[in-house]
């Protein structure tokens, strides 16, 4: 425990700090860039229909970029939800259950997104 001029500072959680702050900013930046690229392709790519939408995601670079954004989204959500559970759910058992549920849900979403993206 660190003393700071008359008040006690209690540090809880093993993952607070620069790493989480930076991961939130990097993942948000990647998602914003993806949104800009997608909007540009929709606006300047011709008439919008199923064929155009399928063509946008048929390019390998777009599949890879989409996969990177999916992983970024999962990391972004995990850091945010973990912080919410740690800050607002005090009973350890309930917090652990919510964290496990969040992990299972995110892994399921990742599997579904990969299946949709590559039609596995």
Can you summarize this structure?
The protein is mainly alpha-helical. The protein has a single domain (18-118), classed as Fumarate reductase/succinate dehydrogenase, transmembrane subunit (3 helical TM bundles of succinate and fumarate reductases), CATH 1.20.1300.
User: Whole-number average pLDDT?
Assistant: 87
Overall tally of structural domains:
1
Strand content: 5-15%
Shape: elongated
Q: What is the straight-line distance between the termini?
A: 51 Å
CATH topology: 3 helical TM bundles of succinate and fumarate reductases
Radius of gyration based on Cα positions:
20 Å
Looking at how many chains there are and whether they match, the oligomeric state comes to single chain
Briefly note the structural class of the backbone: mainly alpha
Q: How many strands, what sense, and barrel or not for the largest sheet?
A: 2 strands, antiparallel
- Topology pattern, helix = H, strand = E: EEHHHH
Notes on the structure:
- With 120 residues, this protein is mainly α.
- The protein has one domain: Up-down Bundle (3 helical TM bundles of succinate and fumarate reductases), CATH 1.20.1300.
- It is 75% helix and 5% strand.
- It has 4 helices and 2 strands.
- A two-stranded antiparallel sheet has the order 1-2.
- Strand 1 and strand 2 (7-9) form a beta hairpin.
- It is elongated.
- It is found in: Cell inner membrane.
- It is a multi-pass membrane protein.
- Pathway: Carbohydrate metabolism; tricarboxylic acid cycle.
Give descriptors for this structure.
5% strand, 120 residues, elongated, 2 strands, 3 helical TM bundles of succinate and fumarate reductases, two-stranded antiparallel ribbon, single chain, mainly alpha
């Amino acid at each position: 425990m660190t003393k700071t001029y008359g008040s006690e500072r209690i540090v809880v959680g093993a993952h607070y700090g620069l790493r989480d702050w930076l991961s939130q900013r990097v993942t948000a930046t990647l998602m914003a860039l993806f949104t800009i690229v997608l909007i540009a392709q929709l606006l300047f790519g011709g008439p919008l229909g199923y064929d155009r939408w399928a063509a946008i995601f048929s390019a390998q670079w777009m599949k890879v970029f989409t996969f990177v954004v999916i992983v970024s989204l999962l990391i972004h959500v995990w850091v945010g939800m973990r912080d919410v559970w740690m800050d607002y759910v005090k009973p350890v058992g309930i917090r652990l259950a919510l964290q496990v549920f969040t992990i299972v849900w995110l892994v399921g979403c990742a599997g579904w997104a990969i299946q949709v993206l590559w039609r596995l």
